[in-house]
Amino acid sequence: MTSSIFHRVTVIGPGLIGSSILRRIQKDRSLATYTVAYDNNPDVCNRVKELQIADEVCSDPETAVKDADCVILAVPVGVMGEVTKQIAPYLQKGAILTDTGSTKASVIAAIEPHLPPDVVFVPTHPMAGTEFSGPDAGFESLFENRWCLITPTPNTTQEAIDKITEFWQKMGSNTRILDIKHHDKVCAIVSHLPHLIAFTICNTADSLEEETRSEVLDYAASGFRDFTRVASSDPTMWRDVFINNREAILEMLARFTEDAQAMAKAIRWKDEEYITETIQKGRRIRKSLIDNKQVQ
Ligand SMILES: NC(=O)c1ccc[n+]([C@@H]2O[C@H](COP(=O)([O-])OP(=O)(O)OC[C@H]3O[C@@H](n4cnc5c(N)ncnc54)[C@H](O)[C@@H]3O)[C@@H](O)[C@H]2O)c1
Ligand SMILES: O=C(O)C(=O)C[C@]1(C(=O)O)C=C[C@@H](O)C=C1
């Protein structure tokens, strides 16, 4: 019999990400022998029971984390600190606490003050997701061929990093260790700014329709439709991401605004060379993502 990486994994917040982790463990028991789920929304707990994706569903966080050798926080980034405070006195000595939050500096700052000295925290961020949320949205192959970024703190032990690395690699992910601030900057440009732009462009189109009483949205072409997929993402999750990575997002937004202004100038002065080169850069980026198998 092969042994599992963890004996008892507790997922707090079994929504899109948490339920995908549970589903993957159910398929591959070398990840964990036993799984426990807890959510502060009783409807989510009931749904996880109906879906039968966890071995046990707890109605309180204290029982959920007791005896777990790994606790995974998959809640919105704005409540990571408060949840850690709630569970901290009940964490098992030697347990690993990890999270899946989309921002890292703020999550680490929120969690660390509540961390018991004999618990190791390994901050992680699976770069995989969809516009859907909740336990029905998850699926076991979500993390396959996706990056999982690991951003250790000075207190994270090498042993814990190795275990979490093995865990995510068995989930099908490629792993990379990243500096915390660097992570937040990179994610601001590749994930947070695109969402900000998608939400904003939908709002602009909507208010234009109201102002002109026209049918702007009826004729939405596929370019706009692609933005609406991203813009249909969860409001709580994204409100928290924007507020918790504000410095990096505002910096990337300022740079984007400068580049958009440069494009506006090129269009005004019919600078064909600048316009063509900008479009070609976009095409090259798309091609490199396809070559790296990050786009189907
Ligand atoms: N959606 C994505 O594409 C994606 C990708 C990577 C990482 N993440 C990150 O992973 C985390 C989870 O995202 P998700 O998309 O799975 O969200 P989700 O909304 O699908 O699930 C979050 C769950 O947390 C629960 N929750 C909220 N507050 C709680 C609390 N105080 N105590 C217990 N449970 C609570 C909610 O009821 C919900 O079931 C977030 O931090 C997010 O930033 C999301
Ligand atoms: O695929 C999507 O729709 C996502 O929004 C996933 C996505 C992203 O922007 O790529 C969203 C947030 C994350 O923290 C990681 C991944």
From TrEMBL:
Any one GO MF annotation of this record: prephenate dehydrogenase (NAD+) activity
Top EC class, one word: oxidoreductase
Annotated EC: 1.3.1.12
Domain of life: Bacteria
Recorded metabolic or biological pathway in which this protein acts: Amino-acid biosynthesis; L-tyrosine biosynthesis; (4-hydroxyphenyl)pyruvate from prephenate (NAD(+) route): step 1/1
Catalyses which reaction(s): prephenate + NAD(+) = 3-(4-hydroxyphenyl)pyruvate + CO2 + NADH
One biological process term in Gene Ontology: tyrosine biosynthetic process
Pfam families: PDH_C (PF20463), PDH_N (PF02153)
Keywords: Amino-acid biosynthesis, Aromatic amino acid biosynthesis, NAD, Oxidoreductase, Tyrosine biosynthesis
Sequence ranges assigned to domain Prephenate/arogenate dehydrogenase in this UniProt record: 7-296
Record-stated family: Belongs to the prephenate/arogenate dehydrogenase family.
Name this protein carries in UniProt: prephenate dehydrogenase
Organism for this UniProt entry: Commensalibacter papalotli
